[in-house]
Amino acid sequence: MGFRKLNNQKIVLTGASSGIGRSMAAQLVRQGNHVLAVARRENRLAALQSELETASGSLSYLAVDVTSAGDRNLVSDWVVQNWDGELDVLINNAGIGSIGPFSESDESTLRNVMEVNFFAAVELIRDSLRHLRQSKSPVVCNIASVLGHTAMPSKSEYCASKFAMHGFSDALRIELKGEGVDVVLVSPSTTRSEFFESVLSGASQQDKGMSADIVGALAIRAIEKRKREVLLSWGGKCLVLADRILPGVVSKLLIRWYRRQCRAVTGIEG
Ligand SMILES: NC(=O)c1ccc[n+]([C@@H]2O[C@H](COP(=O)([O-])OP(=O)(O)OC[C@H]3O[C@@H](n4cnc5c(N)ncnc54)[C@H](OP(=O)(O)O)[C@@H]3O)[C@@H](O)[C@H]2O)c1
User: N or C, where is the chain less crowded by C-beta within 10 Å?
Assistant: First the structure.
């Protein structure tokens, strides 16, 4: 199967109110697609819609919380009412993080991270399968992370959610192959967005990393090139490769790095 040009496609995209999702929505609509943008902040979604008024595609939006089953049903109902139940692309991008040692975190933080990053996305896929099956060239694209391939200290809950998404996507890809539904796993490295301001604990500013526009463009490219999975930065690729080939060495380096971080923050040996 060759290149799949994303044009005039019906696309549901979660987490479209900021960062990578917002950028993907804008690029997809400018490319002539019809996007249903999903996130909680209605004012942001409305502003994006006005910004894209003259673009060749169209942007509609639903201000919903993806962790609510009732809200996810609204997405499905919208697809039935507006697109006759047909969906070409589902992009699960909505995500949150938490930063800090596991021993200082709590159950509700872990559950929140898993609800948004994993359970909501997976259940949205379950709800969407009947719609995707009506498309000629259906795709599920899950935005994971390099931290869904190689684990980092202070991000155990986030890593758990993204490793879960990685494993789930690999299994689903095989299951849906026979039906022609592609499953693409996109794994960005650090990206400049609002992500680090909205993490459940350890919120911070982040001015390093790739731009959300470049990450969005590479994710769209991965769908168009029918990739199974993509790691978006060279640093991410090298880290994941090193972790596969020399897991003991990478682990030792990370332990040393984490000790230095702990000493810098507390003055106490980590
Ligand atoms: N930034 C990075 O360094 C980085 C690196 C690797 C992977 N990623 C992944 O990339 C994806 C996008 O992150 P980003 O960097 O663009 O962060 P972001 O700017 O914080 O965007 C996150 C999006 O998710 C939405 N969202 C969060 N919880 C939601 C909920 N319960 N229901 C509906 N929408 C929800 C937010 O919208 P509302 O708040 O309006 O609901 C927002 O639109 C995430 O899956 C993240 O894990 C990010």
Answer: N
Measured distance CA(250)–CA(5) in Å, rounded:
39
The pLDDT tens digits for 44-65 are 999 999 999 999 999 999 999 9
Is residue 267 pLDDT above 70, yes or no? no
Q: Is 61 a catalytic residue?
A: no
In this structure, the residue with its CA closest to atom 31 of ligand 1 is 65
Q: Class assignment of domain 10-232?
A: alpha beta
Mutate to test the pocket of ligand 1, among 14, 18, 150 (most ligand atoms within 8 A of CB): 18
Quote the CA–CA distance of 240 and 243 in Å, as a whole number: 5
Residue from 97, 71, 88 nearest 33 by CA:
88
CA pair distance 151, 167, nearest whole angstrom: 14
CA-closest residue to ligand 1 atom 23: 15
Q: What string of DSSP letters covers 211-246?
A: EHHHHHHHHHHHHHTT-SEEE-SHHHHHHHHHHHH-
pLDDT digits (tens, 9 = 90+) for 102-131: 999 999 999 999 999 999 999 999 999 999
With contact defined as beta carbons under 8 Å apart, do 184 and 140 qualify? yes
Whose tokens are 């498309």? That residue is: 135
| Predicted structure pTM score | 0.96
Q: What is the pLDDT of residues 18-33, one digit of tens each?
A: 999 999 999 999 999 9
What are the boundaries of each domain within the chain? 10-232, 234-270
- 3-state class (DSSP) for residue 203: coil
Atom of ligand 1 nearest to the CA of 192: 1
